[in-house]
Amino acid sequence: MEHDFRARLRRGERLIGTMVTLPSPEVTEVLSSVGFDWLFLDAEHGVLATHDLQALLQAGGPAMPGVVRVSAAAEVPIKKALDIGAAGIIVPQVNSAAQAEQVVRLARYSPLGVRGVGIGRAHGYGLRLQEYLASANDQIAVIVQVEHIDAVRQIEAIAGVGGIDAVLVGPYDLSASLGRLGDVAHADVQAAIDRVTQVCHDAGVRLGIFGVSAAALQPYLARGYTLLVAGVDTLLLAHAAQALLTELKA
């Protein structure tokens, strides 16, 4: 790997990325060229399959960390994402310490975990297998999503799991679990986020969050969040097109 995404994440550097949902290498090439620190490749929602993800990682190039949000906290999606060369994984709906511990084990080779050994893009299609096996446990980032009230209730235990590099708050699913679907500004949702924020700060665990705009993310920058997902490819395209059209019609 030509990047040091995990090391920068653990140091607490501000890492600004954006979400990629379109199976278009060209879109990923454009986003990789404008200065983002990393790309969030979303395989949980939408259409991205393993082959699409690999093409997007190739388009981003070796210097652009592509972190895959896998479809579930399960062995096959985790090892496939890592074998195609992801800089790390983002795992949705991690609601307990036991789940977090299992995620870490699935992302780490023996003796730290149970990740299976296969031949793929991450290993230079076999040409750099031993080199990759020797370094992967140190270089692969493991990020878990706290996006349900059950996870908030267990946040001390989750934050205490060794090998978790960051907690990414999912405000929209969290609002749904509180009966406040989409109302991420509601006091109940904000109180839950406050609790996660304080516990993770106390535990020395890095924090991340998604926001549709810079304005949505500014309050979290002020609260020490360092892993930022700023917007999503479809909305970036749509908003730019709308702004252009509005300006011309005016």
Characterise this structure.
Helix 2 (25-32) runs parallel beside helix 3. It is built from twelve helices and eight strands. The protein has a single domain, classed as TIM Barrel, CATH 3.20.20. An eight-stranded parallel barrel has the order 1-2-3-4-5-6-7-8, surrounded by eight helices. The protein has helices at 5-11, 25-32, 50-60, 75-83, 97-107, 129-139, 149-153, 155-159, 171-177, 187-203, 214-222, 233-249; strands at 15-20, 38-42, 66-69, 88-91, 141-146, 166-169, 206-211, 227-232. The radius of gyration is 18 Å and the shape is globular. It starts with a helix and ends with a helix. The mean pLDDT is 97. By secondary structure, the chain is an alpha/beta fold.
Short summary of the structure?
47% of the residues lie in helices and 16% in strands.
Order of helices and strands: HEHEHEHEHHEHHEHHEHEH
The CATH topology is given as: TIM Barrel
The low-confidence runs, each spanning 5 or more residues with pLDDT under 50, are none
CATH class call: Alpha Beta
State the end-to-end CA separation. 48 Å
Number of strands: 8
How many DSSP helices?
A: 12
Largest sheet: 8 strands, parallel, barrel
Strand line-up in the sheet with most strands: 1-2-3-4-5-6-7-8
The residue-averaged pLDDT reads 97
Dominant shape:
globular
CATH H-level superfamily: Phosphoenolpyruvate-binding domains
User: Strand portion, in percent?
Assistant: 15-25%
Fraction in helix:
40-55%
The domain tally reads 1
Name the CATH architecture. Alpha-Beta Barrel
Could you tell me the radius of gyration in angstroms? 18 Å
Q: Which structural class do you get from the secondary structure elements?
A: alpha/beta
